[in-house]
Each structure stands twice: as C-alpha cells, then as structure tokens.
Amino acid sequence: MNASELPEPTGRVALVTGGSRGIGYGIAEALVARGDRVCITGRGEEALKEAVERLGSDRAVHVAGKAHDEAHQAIAVERTMEAFGRVDYLVNNAGTNPVFGPMADLDLNVARKVYETNVISALGFAQQTWKAWQKENGGAIVNIASVAGVAASPFVGAYGMSKAAMINLTLQLAHEFAPIVRVNAIAPAVVKTKFAEALYEGREAEVTAAYPLGRLGVPADIGGAAAFLTSDQSDWITGQTLVIDGGIFLNAGVG
C-alpha cells in the first residue's frame, strides 16, 4: 500500500516483535493498513529498515535486538513511547526453532533457548507494555502460538512445548490483566514464510494436499486475525486461542 492510500491514523499504536518479515510483517502491514502506527522489532537492522520503508516511515519505527534480552525489551517499549506516545497493542511474534529431531535426543540447553526466546520474552514484553501504558490506559495483547502447541508435533517437540506454554501464558495474563487489557493467542498451522520453509520446501503440493481449504497459510491470513483481535469488534474476547489451520484439524479423526 502506498503512503497516499493509507487511511487517516486511528491514534492507536502497536509493538510487533519479530516484525521484519513473515507473520510479524504481515501483522504490522495489516495494522498500518487500517491506520495504526507500529514499532517492529527483530534481530536484523537492515531487514527492519527495509520493512519500515515498505510500511511507511511516518507510520512505523524499528528497534533491533534479541527478543529475550531484557534491555532490548525495555528499549523497544521506550522507543515506541518516544515515537508515538503510547503502546495500545502488543503482538508477541518473535520466536525460534533451531532444532529438528526427537525429544529423546534433545539438547537441554537448546530447549532452554527455545523456551526463553519463545515464552519468557513474550512475558517480558507484556510486563513492559503493561507498566508503560496498558495498566492505566488499556489495550490488547496477541501472542502468536502454533498448532504445534495444541497437538503432538513430531521432530519439533521443543517448539511445540514452548508454544503450549505460550497458550497458557495467554490464559494467565488474560486473567490477571482483565478487565482493562484483553489477551488472546493465534495458533497457525503451516504459513508460507522463511521461518517455516523446512516444513514444505520441495514438497509443497504434498503438504498442501492435507489441508481441506487447499492451500497453505500466508502472512496476511494471520495479519487479518491479529487486526480483529486488537479491534473494538473483539471487545468481549479474552483468554482465547484462535486456531488458523486451513481446516487441517478436520482430518484428526480420519484413519
């Protein structure tokens, strides 16, 4: 969307972690398209700069750093407040999945890294946005989980374990932050991103065949859901996990 096509600003502001590409960028794009302003985070400075240019430098800023770094979390929230004066929405999308193999052989240090990046960082960002703005002014949090967190996930068990924890974190925060801040999660199946390439690359037709809706997800699918969960239309929804799976769970009872 060109800057000239953007709607008037809504006055609302979002912080989206892991926002330089893939699902995170798709969410940031959806929020900017409705008039919100965003701060995106990620590890790569250049990728973030390019993302901000596409989103519009008058509508977006960025902060580079590692999601699990508490100093980075604080700086990201501070930068959002400095740039836009508020932080209504937090989207915890940053995540990692550095290992593929059985749980029986899982390096426990790798498991700790996955948990720290995927879960503890989400809690840290939630604490920061709560203290900086949401506690007094309200807002919403959306945690990006995964279908791997609601079912067995062979060979990506550490990732699935962390996403199950994120779903429970959603429940804990939703209970504690009510009634002023709503907290929900989105659990996507396979979405066509660089992060998920190993799950479909070279065999996309075979993987897609398992989906009743006949395709894999794209970042815009998750962006639309996140936009809904941070809108007034979802004002009576909290503590929920929205599964976006192209219908693949419909096949769970087959066989």
Strand content: 5-15%
Largest sheet: 7 strands, parallel
Strand order of the largest sheet: 3-2-1-4-5-6-7
Could you name the CATH homologous superfamily? NAD(P)-binding Rossmann-like Domain
Order of helices and strands: EHEHEHEHEHEHHE
Number of strands: 7
Q: pLDDT under 50 segments (min length 5)? A: none
Q: What are its keywords?
A:
oxidoreductase activity, 255 residues, Rossmann fold, seven-stranded parallel sheet, Sc_DH/Rdtase_CS, globular, NAD(P)-bd_dom_sf
Structure commentary:
It is a single chain. The longest helix has 30 residues. The protein is α/β, with parallel strands linked by helices. Helix content is 41%, strand content 15%. α1 packs across α7, α3 packs parallel to α4 and α4 packs parallel to α5. It has one domain: NAD(P)-binding Rossmann-like Domain (Rossmann fold, 3-Layer(aba) Sandwich), CATH 3.40.50.720. Strands 3-2-1-4-5-6-7 form a 7-stranded parallel sheet, with helices on both faces.
Please render the helix and strand layout as text.
Elements: E1 13-16, H1 22-33, E2 37-42, H2 45-55, E3 60-64, H3 70-84, E4 89-92, H4 108-137, E5 139-144, H5 157-177, E6 181-188, H6 204-208, H7 219-229, E7 241-244
Parallel strand pairs: 1-2, 1-4, 2-3, 4-5, 5-6, 6-7
Summarize the structure.
The chain is 41% helix and 15% strand. The chain has one domain: NAD(P)-binding Rossmann-like Domain (Rossmann fold), CATH 3.40.50.720. It is an alpha/beta fold and 255 residues long.
